[in-house]
UniProtKB/TrEMBL annotation:
Record's keyword terms, sorted: Cell inner membrane, Cell membrane, Membrane, Transmembrane, Transmembrane helix, Transport
Name under which the protein is recorded: Putative spermidine/putrescine transport system permease protein
Pfam families: BPD_transp_1
Keyword Ribosomal protein listed: no
One GO term (biological process): transmembrane transport
Length: 272
């Protein structure tokens, strides 16, 4: 009896060891590139090198002297906020309809809402470009907001739908029994419970819209390019650590947003 038990115990240990090794390897592969970029951003010399030869904030100060880059950051912030608002306004009712609604082809409707998340961003960017050309609608801030909203809408829809699925529908019935109409029930009972999910969806949407290059490259106005597109062109003509410094700031922004979500909402809520 001891032989089979020892074999099972040995197999469990090997499986656990392999799982730990794969987990560590995955974390390293995900985190190491970001750490390398951050390290390169402190390189004092005028070219990219790793490991850096010293520590300097030269390229962070250099960013403040590049007016074109500062303008592109403002463009990205403005576009990201507008995309976030559009996705919230459209995503919350769409998620409510996809979860609580009763109508034919509901499955197809939900698949349609989440379809942009299954497509490469470049496909959406090219499709938006061709559609805009067909209706004589040139690349502009409005075109960029619309195309990014299509791409980012599933972030809000998925998170809000997951939250809605966990809510007790008896609360809505109790509200109706007390005389509240459907709209009053939605705004006074359901919507407050969706606030954490809406906040998380808005944050993810903001980050995705701010960092997106595949859609922005095809639909942004050449006279007011967002930061990802500006970096795309900058990489072709410049190889200084300035690019790493900007990328490090974007990494920091993403971390700050994630920490705010974890602090204000709690990421564990979306794992239930």
């Amino acid at each position: 009896m001891s032989g089979p038990r020892q074999m099972i115990s040995l197999g469990d240990r090997l499986a656990r060891g392999m799982l730990i090794a794969l987990t560590v390897m995955s974390i390293v592969l995900l985190v190491a590139p970001s750490l390398i970029v951050i390290a390169i951003s402190f390189e004092p010399r005028g070219y990219i090198a790793f490991p850096p030869s010293g520590f300097s904030l030269r390229w962070y100060w250099a960013l403040l002297e590049r007016q074109q880059l500062l303008d592109s950051i403002l463009v990205s912030l403005r576009i990201s906020v507008m995309v976030m608002v559009v996705c919230l306004v459209l995503g919350i009712p769409a998620a409510f309809a996809g979860t609580r609604g009763r109508f034919p082809a509901k499955t197809a409707f939900n698949a349609f809402l989440l379809a942009p998340q299954m497509m490469p961003g470049m496909v959406i960017g090219i499709a938006s470009l061709f559609f805009g050309a067909y209706i004589s609608f040139r690349a502009s801030d409005l075109m960029l907001v619309l195309s990014l909203s299509v791409f980012c809408l599933p972030f809000v829809v998925r998170i809000v739908m997951a939250r809605l699925a966990g809510l007790d529908p008896l609360l809505d019935e109790a509200s109706a029994n007390l005389g509240a109409g459907k709209f009053e029930t939605f705004f006074r009972v359901t919507l407050p419970q969706l606030a954490p999910a809406a906040f998380a969806g808005a944050a993810f949407t903001f980050i995705e819209a701010f960092d997106n290059v595949t859609v922005s490259l095809f639909t942004s106005d050449v006279r007011a390019r967002p930061l990802p597109v500006e970096l795309y062109y900058l990489v072709q003509f410049e190889s200084s650590p300035l690019i790493a410094a900007i990328s490090s700031l974007e990494i920091g922004l993403s971390l700050v947003v994630m920490l705010v979500i974890a602090r204000a909402v709690g990421l564990e809520r979306f794992g239930r």
